[in-house]
Amino acid sequence: MNSFNLCHPLPYYPHPGEFPTIAKLLSHIFRGKASINGKGEETQVIGDPLTVAMDWINLAMTHPKQTLPALILVSKKGNTGKTTFAKMLREVFGHQNAIILNNAQFNMQFNAHYITRHLIMIDESFLEVEKKAEKERLKQLITSDTQPLEFKGTDISTIPYYGKIVMLSNDSTSLMKIDEGEDRWFITDVPEIAPETKDPLMDEKIREEAAAFAYF
C-alpha cells in the first residue's frame, strides 16, 4: 500500500459564468482598493489584500505544490463571514480536498482525518500558539513537503504533503505573536456584515457559482 496521493477530482466541471455572491463575499472579507465583480472583471493592486487573496486562491488551485502562507482571518466580533468564506473554499476545492476543523479535531493525536487534504481550515482558532511547540507545528504545516500520516492503531507513514492552512479566529489581539520579518502568515481583519445585507441563501448561491469562479 504505497499509494498516498488522495487528491480527489473537483465535484464539477469549471465553465464560464457569473459569480456575484462569491465576488461580494471576497470583496467584503478582504476590502482594499482592488475590485472584482460577478462577471469576472478584476482590478488588481499590488500588495492589496483582495489581490493577494485572489493570487493565493489561484495558486492553490493551479499550482497545488506551491508553498503558500497561512491565510488567517480575524475579527473581534462574530457575524463577519469568516466561516462562510471557509465553506466557499470547500465548495470550490471540493469537500474531499478541503476540511473545516475545530480546535479539538485539529489537536487530536491522530491526523489521518485531515493531513491528506489540500486545504486544512481551522474554525474559531485558539491554539496555544504562544507556546513555541504549537507555533513550530504550524510553521511546519505551512512549509514542509512531507508529513507523518498516523491512523489509530497503525504504524506512522511519511507522505508527500502540500496542505494549505486557513485559520479563523475571533481573538484578534492574542491569536499569535508574530516576529518582525516573518512571512508565513497572511492576516486580514474582517469587518462585521450589516444585518440588512445578510443573505439566507448565500451558501446555496456559492455552491451554484463555484464552477464559474473556478473557471475564472
Biggest pleated sheet: 5 strands, parallel
From the N-terminal CA to the C-terminal CA, the straight-line distance is: 37 Å
Strand content: 15-25%
For the largest sheet, list the strands in their spatial order. 4-5-8-3-9
Number of helices: 6
Number of strands: 9
The helix fraction, in percent, is: 25-40%
- The mean pLDDT is 87
Order of helices and strands: HEEHEHEHEHEEEEH
Poorly predicted runs of 5 or more residues: none
What is the overall silhouette?
A: globular
Task: Please compute the radius of gyration using only Cα atoms.
Answer: 17 Å
Going by helix content, strand content and strand pairing, the class is alpha/beta
Explain what the structure shows.
The chain has 216 residues and is an alpha/beta fold. Helices cover 31% and strands 17% of the residues. The chain has six helices and nine strands, in the order H-E-E-H-E-H-E-H-E-H-E-E-E-E-H. The strands form three sheets. It has a five-stranded parallel sheet with strand order 4-5-8-3-9, sandwiched between helices. Strand 6 and strand 7 form a beta hairpin. Helix 1 packs across helix 3 and helix 3 packs across helix 6. The longest helix is centred in the N-terminal third of the chain and has 14 residues. The chain is globular and about 50 Å long. The N and C termini lie far apart (37 Å). The model has no long low-confidence stretch (mean pLDDT 87).
